[in-house]
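Intended use. Records like the one below are meant for learning the mapping from a protein sequence to its folded structure. Do not use them to infer anything beyond what is encoded.
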Amino acid sequence: MRTERPASEALEPASLDEIGATECWQLLSSQPIGRVAVIVGHYPLVFPVNYTVDGQTILYRTGVGTKLDSIHRSNVTFEVDEIDRTDRSGWSVMVKGVAQELSVERDHRVASRAEVGAEATWAPGKRDHFIRIVADQITGRRIRPAELPPATDLRGYL
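Structure written out for the chain above:
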C-alpha cells in the first residue's frame, strides 16, 4: 500500500552548498593526502601528495622531478575531498595559490612543520625538497543528498 505525501511534506532536494574559508581550512587539516595540480607544457598534471596545513599555507615534501621542476613560484591548485559513496554526500576544498620551494636553512621552522606532515609518505623515494603553497583563494563545496522517500513496505526483510 502506497501513501501519497502531501505537497507540504515534499522531499528535500539534494543541494550543493558553499563552505566558508574558516571551515575549508579545518577540512584541509583533517586529511593526510591532497592533490597538487601544476602546468607542464600545455597540460595540467595532478599529483597526490602527503601534506600538512600551517596557518593558511600548505606544506609538502617532494623529490626531484616534474612536481619540483614545475612549481618554482608558479600558480598551482591544491584540492582535497572526502566522499561518502553510501549516502552520496561529501565535500571538496580547492586552494589556488603560488608554490615555492623553501630553503631549509632559511625557513627551518616551516620546513620542520612540513617534515611532520609528511612523515608517512606513501610513495617510496627520497623527498628532500620542501614546498609551500601560499593561498590566494580558498573555496569549498559540500554536497548534501536528497531526502530519501519513506519505506513503502513496513513488513521488513530478513
